[in-house]
Design brief:
The chain has 286 residues and is α/β, with parallel strands linked by helices. The protein folds into 3 domains: 2-52; 61-238, Vaccinia Virus protein VP39 (Rossmann fold); 250-285, no CATH class. 27% of the residues lie in helices and 16% in strands. The protein has helices spanning 14-23, 31-37, 42-52, 61-74, 158-168, 203-214, 256-261, 279-285, and strands at 2-3, 89-92, 103-107, 129-130, 143-149, 169-180, 218-223, 231-238. Strand 7 (218-223) and strand 8 form a beta hairpin. The radius of gyration is 24 Å and the shape is elongated. The two termini are 39 Å apart.
Length: 286
């Protein structure tokens, strides 16, 4: 399993942390606080967040670096050796975050519905496939990968949700997840909005859940693969050998001319005489 050390060394004294905390004003991202905290390194700001129980502040290019790190991490869930254009994958709880054009965006809404006070996305995807993440309408063993960034913490039962997703994956398929580390964001026990965070993710909790609930179905292939601490990632690989979708052999596909010569071409003239399949049998096989 690939993993990154996430130890937080004592980068600031307790006195320094308290001095900074007393100087802060309003929202963490206010101009005053940005100026105050910009004197600190990334590691110092993360340590300040941990000790002061405030959301860690990233500045300038650091935001893009975190975004890229998160997206690169979840995409390692793709079965190795296969280009994304040949895989069937979902981006569950997508919001406006595409990640890859080869992933189907899935969400519970396409446009603002309940309002910000309910904790819904501030940016949405008008082309999202609408589905509940705890009951995705796909066949068992039909998907190659599922990714989800900053969504799983909004579900009250992440354990069974991941088991449901593993059921939908082909053997060898992968799940790539990014969730916030609550120690560098906030405590979900203080969230009151219905669509807000519902549990407190940490790498140690994910390890414990894996050992207790997910290990029978998948390997924990990756955990904490990048070093920025606001969030962390994990990848689960379903046991078994992966077999990708294979397009049909064109040499076996009959042309219109062939269908006509074999007496099975459908047209106004032939309708009623061309043998058709039992509609009940067709429906049952769908």
């Amino acid at each position: 399993m690939k993993t990154e050390s996430r130890k937080s060394e004592s980068l600031l004294s307790d006195a320094e942390i308290e001095r900074i905390r007393l100087q802060m004003q309003g929202d963490i991202a206010s101009p005053h606080n940005v100026k105050l905290l910009s004197r600190l390194s990334i590691a110092e700001r993360e340590y300040f967040s941990l000790k002061s129980k405030t959301v860690v502040l990233y500045l300038g290019d650091e935001v893009g670096r975190l975004t890229r790190s998160e997206e690169e991490a979840v995409m390692r869930a793709a079965p190795p050796g296969y280009p994304l254009r040949k895989l069937n994958g979902l981006n569950v709880g997508c919001g406006a975050r595409t990640v890859s054009p080869y992933l189907m965006p899935v969400d519970i809404m396409r446009e603002a519905t309940f309002g910000a006070r309910c904790g819904e996305h501030q940016a949405l995807n008008k082309t999202a496939f609408l589905a509940n993440p705890t009951d995705l309408p796909f066949r068992a063993g039909s998907l190659d990968l599922i990714v989800s960034l900053h969504m799983l913490e909004h579900l009250e039962d992440p354990i069974d949700t991941i088991i449901h997703w593993l059921y939908l994956l082909k053997p060898g398929g992968g799940i790539g997840i990014v969730v916030p580390d609550w120690r560098y964001t906030w405590d979900s026990r203080n969230d009151h909005a219905p669509l807000s965070h519902k549990w407190n993710p940490t790498p140690s909790l994910i390890k414990a859940i894996y050992e207790t609930h997910w290990k029978p179905f998948a390997e924990l292939e990756q955990l904490c693969s990048y070093d920025m601490k606001l969030s962390f990632d994990f990848v689960l690989r379903k046991y078994g050998e992966f077999v990708p979708f294979s397009p049909p052999d064109v040499s076996t596909i009959r042309s219109g001319a062939t269908l006509h010569s074999e007496g099975v071409f459908l047209s106004d003239e032939t309708f009623g005489s061309v043998a058709s399949k039992d509609p009940i049998a067709v429906a049952k096989s769908a």
